[in-house]
Amino acid sequence: MRFPKLASRRITIALSLALLGALLLIAIPGAGLVVSSGLPDVRQLDAMLDACQVTSVFEAEPRPGETGGKTDRLLCPDAVGPTGFSEALLSAVVASEDERFLGHRGVDDLAVLRSLLPGFPGGGSTITQQVARTLFLNDERLLGYAAPGKLLRKLREWHVALAIEALRDKRQILTIYLNIAPLGNGIIGFDSAARYYFGKPARDLDAMEAATLVGMLPQPMNRQPFKEDMAEAASAANAADRVLAKMLALGLVTPAEATAAQAKVTRVLRKGTLSRPPHETLLATLRPIEYRRVRDFAAVQLAERGLTNEATRIFLTLDPELQALADQATAKPPKDAEMAGVVLGPQAQVLAISGGTYSTSSWNPAWRANRSIGSIAKPLLYSLALEHAGDMPKTWSTAPLKGYNPAEPNGACRSGLTLETYLKYSCNRPFVSIAAREPALATQRVTAFGWHAPDNPLLIATGGVHSNPMDVALGYTAFRNGGRLLRPQVIVAATGTGGRLLTFEEPDEGRRVLAPDTANAVRAALFQPTSAGGSAAAARGRKHAAAVWGKTGTSDDDRDAWFVGSTVGWTAAILAWREAPGVGQMSGGGLSAVRFGRMVDAYWPDRNWTGMRDGRLRDGGAAVYGWWAHPQRLWNWLAAKATMVLAIALLAMALGLLTGHRSKAPTPPAEDPDPDSVREV
């Protein structure tokens, strides 16, 4: 039997509604997916989101007043943690840049739909889209894209933004944005901007100061707040007032707070009381850490891959906090001495490279030098003694040796003690005895670690081995990696024009240089030198905030003074050297151990406190994240969900029409009952 036309029309309408609802749900992700060829996949993007990058993209066509040329810039998404920004700044950014930030999925569907309708403004990019563009894509304003290029870039931007939202929560995305936003004069990030414009960290910004910085976007060079140009200061004041008005409308400031902030805008900006800082302040702000040595090390690896001229962004393993600490540790060496250092992660990621003043010499001994490492090689001889315990004596002696008889560093080196105790006090003769018993194996062990072995194996324990901080630190990471020596990783990834992925570094499996049990035993023994009374006790720092293991080393006449060791999360090698015989601080490697201890003191206590209390309290309590706490914020959240709600409603209507059609479908007429049948009552 044929269905009536009404049922057929109902099916058509239902299918149309279902198609429209499905398009609303998948149109933006689908469009981005179509043009995603060459971009990083989700796994790669996850790793790249956490990485600092060196890029020259921003320098393609510098805006008026900004530094041009070939100078690159460093973008670090996690340079400042979420507790490093004031609540007023968080509120100002969301209110001004993306008021539906907490509700959308990375792309504001409502703004996209409005832009497709004539007579409706489309709105700007979301915060997540700005993160995608700044970190991974190129800005068409700088590269001069034509209209088709703009559409392609926008579709790719949508694709990356949706992926970022799937990988990071809103707090993390907002923190990334606050760290990478360009704020004029070549300054990157709100913390650097706060220090330059207002002389304070971003966590101390009040509502007026936050509104001023946010109001400078997206044209910071035309809204400089300094009295030297009152026209620009007036423009900055007007922009700050608009930001404050948006904050008030969203309930992120009270009327009294808004009034006080507006009065300060008039007092500071319109009346011109804010002076431009000295040029030296700007230079210090533009390069808060010396990252160029890590960049140079990465450039060598890029050259090996033939990508030097193609890469526009190099994503690095650099840790900005540890780089700053390494710079401090190797600064101010003793008279006539120099210092250099390397910090590696657990899997040999290059977290920091430090040395002298870069402008004086770009040659870095941290990975190019070939200096005597002194007693640093003794753990390798200790590993031989463990592996050949059956061929070694039960007790050891510090009595004078035949042929080569080095002096002992102190009176604690007496006969009859364990090798672990001799390692603690850096005694010489027991380890020379090991090399004398297994000279070929001792030389092979040193060579396997990538260090330069002496012609006479007896000199391995006392300064005959030569290397540099990079290779020495790599050797000690083998003790924490089950005996595997890894290749240093400095590049996470590199991309070219349009965000095209050129290379992505996979984890290095390394090569085995020690059995796992032997490596673990050596690491356990290396806690002895850093224990109380040990030769490297100073490496624990004064606060004893974290466990430390490692070893000092010195060469003849104290020309070279080393410490290499590990704490939770990283391994560092610090070298101080001079060409003339050393005296004082450099004796016994004490200087380098002390500098390592300062790094531990600076790195761990504050981090332990933040992890226990401060991070959760401040980050979790920011009012900007309470989208339900104010009618306008609640409305914005619902509006951001409008497309999804509409799509689901259309799909529900389609399902209802189809269900209704089935329930009202005509049924065939009943057959006549059997006249012979009898019905009982």
Automatic annotation (TrEMBL):
GO cellular component assignments: outer membrane-bounded periplasmic space
UniProt EC number: 2.4.99.28
Pathway noted in the entry: Cell wall biogenesis; peptidoglycan biosynthesis
Key word Protease present: yes
Disordered: annotated span: 662-681
Record GO biological process: peptidoglycan biosynthetic process; proteolysis
Classification via Gene3D superfamilies: Biosynthetic peptidoglycan transglycosylase-like, DD-peptidase/beta-lactamase superfamily
Transmembrane domains' residue ranges: 634-658
Catalytic activity: [GlcNAc-(1->4)-Mur2Ac(oyl-L-Ala-gamma-D-Glu-L-Lys-D-Ala-D-Ala)](n)-di-trans,octa-cis-undecaprenyl diphosphate + beta-D-GlcNAc-(1->4)-Mur2Ac(oyl-L-Ala-gamma-D-Glu-L-Lys-D-Ala-D-Ala)-di-trans,octa-cis-undecaprenyl diphosphate = [GlcNAc-(1->4)-Mur2Ac(oyl-L-Ala-gamma-D-Glu-L-Lys-D-Ala-D-Ala)](n+1)-di-trans,octa-cis-undecaprenyl diphosphate + di-trans,octa-cis-undecaprenyl diphosphate + H(+)
InterPro entries: Beta-lactam/transpept-like, Glyco_trans_51, Glycosyltr_51/Transpeptidase, Lysozyme-like_dom_sf, PBP_transglycosylase, PCN-bd_Tpept
Glycosyl transferase family domain mapped to chain residues: 84-247
Domain of life per record: Bacteria
UniProt keyword annotations, A-Z: Carboxypeptidase, Glycosyltransferase, Hydrolase, Membrane, Multifunctional enzyme, Protease, Transferase, Transmembrane, Transmembrane helix
Class of enzymatic activity (EC top level): transferase
Alphabetized GO MF terms: carboxypeptidase activity; penicillin binding; peptidoglycan glycosyltransferase activity
Stretches assigned to the Penicillin-binding protein transpeptidase domain: 343-558
Protein family per UniProt: In the C-terminal section; belongs to the transpeptidase family.
Identification of the protein by name: peptidoglycan glycosyltransferase
Organism: Aureimonas ureilytica
Taxonomic lineage of the native organism: Bacteria, Pseudomonadati, Pseudomonadota, Alphaproteobacteria, Hyphomicrobiales
